[in-house]
Structures are given as C-alpha cells and as structure tokens.
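The instructor's notes for this session suggest beginning with a concrete chain rather than abstract definitions. Hand out the sequence below and ask the class to guess, before any prediction is shown, which regions might be ordered.
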Amino acid sequence: MTNWRIHGLTVFFCGALLACSPAEQPESGAQASLATQSMESVAALEALIEADSQFLEASQSAGMAEAYRRFLAPQAIQMLNGYPPVEGRDNIYANFADFADDSAGISLSWELEGADVAASGDLGYTWGTYFYIGPDEAGEEGLIEGNYVNIWRKSAAGNWEVILDIENRTLYTEDALSGDESANALMFDRGSFDETASAAD
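After discussion, reveal the predicted structure:
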C-alpha cells in the first residue's frame, strides 16, 4: 500500500491523531493548532491527488495538449528529456497541439507513485511513471516510458495547477505491443532520439 507522507507524518498517523479522545490528548492551544494543521494538510494532499487524477482523465479523454492547457499555470515551465526548457503554458500547449495535429493515435498516461504538500497547503508535488504511445517517423506505433515530477501550486482561485513539468525517459521502443526494445529512435515533438549517438557522446 502506498504511504502518502506529509512532512514526516503519514496520512494514517494524522487521522489517528485527530481521532484521539479528549482524555488521551491534553486540551491546549498547541494541540488544537497541530490538529487543525494536520487536518488541513491531509485535505490539501487529497485535493492535490484528485487534481492529478483529473489531469490524467483529461489527457485520456481530451488529449494531452488540451489536458496541459487546462492544468498548467500561465507561467509554467516544461523540461523534456534532452531538450531546452519551454516557458509558458501557451508555448507548451502550442508544441503539443502542433504535434497532435500531425500524429493520430497518440496517447499520454501515467501512474502516480507519490505526492506531498507543504505545510502552507499551497505548494506540492506529484511523481510517478508515464507512458507515451504514438507513431514514430515511419508511422509505426512506438512507446516512450519514463519518470516524471510535477510541481503544483494553488492559483488565486484556490485550484491546483502545474508550474513545473519534468520528465526523464527510461525506455524507447518502436513497437510497444510486441515488446521489441531493439529500436533506438522514436519521435517526440521535436525529432527522434538516437540512443547509439547519445551513448557515444
């Protein structure tokens, strides 16, 4: 079972703390403050995990370009493996939209593996494994798999939004269905990745 942690306190521990009877906890301002802070931290973490889930659902139902448009902050920065950072939600959306227009059948999904929030409740992160499936330069279905970290903050309206999107690719194949991992090139937005050339560098 995944154990979501908030500054060294597990969600389970926070729940147990709040469930203690008055007889088990001294009545004091410090204790009341801790209980309130713990409850707010748990609520913030749950909201962050829900935002990540909605982000994923949007990617699968509306496409990755639209999903990023909905969940990125206006000043968001994206750092794709091997490429310069892209600054601004509009520029990130334009990159994905142009690529999606030229490539049918693409899919971006991910599995959340961890999340945390700051004590202030307005800054947090999520991380996990992502899976990109789409055509390569030859039009063959391929897979890119890797790790990601998203840094989130709350907007002025109180909604979680991604301010930094980072990915690190770990697997490159030209045929995701057959499991053939001998291929070394797969197109992703700006061109193809040559694993042999990269190793030589």
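Then share the key points. The domain at 5-200 is CATH 3.10.450.50 (Nuclear Transport Factor 2; Chain: A,). Residues 1-27, 30-34, 175-201 have pLDDT under 50 and may be disordered.
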